[in-house]
Amino acid sequence: MPVASSSRQRRRREPSSDIEEDMPATRARANDDLEDDDDIAQAPARSSKKGRKQQKQEDDDDMDVDAAGDDDDEEVVDIVSNFQDQPIDRSHLQTLGGLSGDWATLRTTFHDKYYPIVNDVGASVAEFVEGNNGEKAVQSIDEHMRQLLDLEDEFRRHEAVVKDMVQTLARDDQIPNVIDHYEENVKQRGAEYKMKTSRQKYAKKEEYRKFRQAIFEVQHPGEAMPPVSELVPKENGDDSDDDDDVEVGGVKQDYKCPLTLTILVKPLTSTVCNHSFSENAIMDYLGQKSSVECPASGCKKMLSRAVLHENKALAKAARDAARRERAREESDEGSDDDEVIE
């Protein structure tokens, strides 16, 4: 029995000794794990320190870049401030020629669009608004017409200055400070225009003559309109007009065709002599010929289909004149009937 007991005791102790033998290895692994944990714990601290150094270096680099950028900006500002306008030469002829054409197109468009409207309004006001109100209304329309003429003259000033610049460059000359040159010349021409009197500005303008003609025909039917200068009040400076510039007045607008002696219908106007004819009448007169002598009394100019152009403004004026003539005839007939009844 004692022997058996001793054997069992030894067997029981064997596992305990195995555990004790395994303990050092387990402790070693545990220590290794702890050391690894320490390394991991210390790693962020080292990484953070390194990151701060790297961030500081990047900030320093950014400051250097900003400083360099400021230097570049200062250089650009210096270049711009020191840059001078370059003179233009013959190589800019085409560009300036196009600019002159743009001013001419603008002026022509303005001319064709607004003058006929003001003429129609002026004639209508003169015909249908009576008394003091009519006179004030006509005067107001007259002021608007003068403003249009002033604006057209401004277009002409710009166009003329550009043309002068083109001629200068065509002579192989240069124009320094082109903007100052342009603005000063336009300003000078404008100052000269403002020094003129109303007669000097408007009396010889064809559009103003047409405007006053349309009003005069309504107010004074059948009478010849005097020179426009007599319709514009005299101002200081008008005495200095050249004596050679004699304005012919006493002209009555005739809306009858020289061939048919009736009111113009679809009038065609000659560009060489400014005489107008009803379309069918002048075409029949031309027949198969390439050109004929103008049938207007005393005119020796030669007419062809190429020089005859439609005149819509004259067509409207002729219709209005015919309408007013019919209205006067009807009014006269009514007056005669009243006299008979009495």
TrEMBL record:
Belongs to the NSE2 family. Its main location: nucleus. Pfam families: zf-Nse. Keywords: Metal-binding, Nucleus, Transferase, Ubl conjugation pathway, Zinc, Zinc-finger. GO terms for cellular component: nucleus; Smc5-Smc6 complex. PROSITE patterns: ZF_SP_RING. It comes from the Eukaryota. The keyword Protein biosynthesis does not apply. Residues 1-72, 222-249, 314-342 are annotated as: Disordered. Residues 58-72, 238-247, 330-342 have a biased composition (Acidic residues). This is SP-RING-type domain-containing protein. Pathway: Protein modification; protein sumoylation. The keyword Membrane does not apply. Residues 314-329 have a biased composition (Basic and acidic residues). GO terms for molecular function: SUMO ligase activity; zinc ion binding. It is found in: Nucleus. GO terms for biological process: double-strand break repair via homologous recombination; protein sumoylation. Residues 242-323 form the SP-RING-type domain.
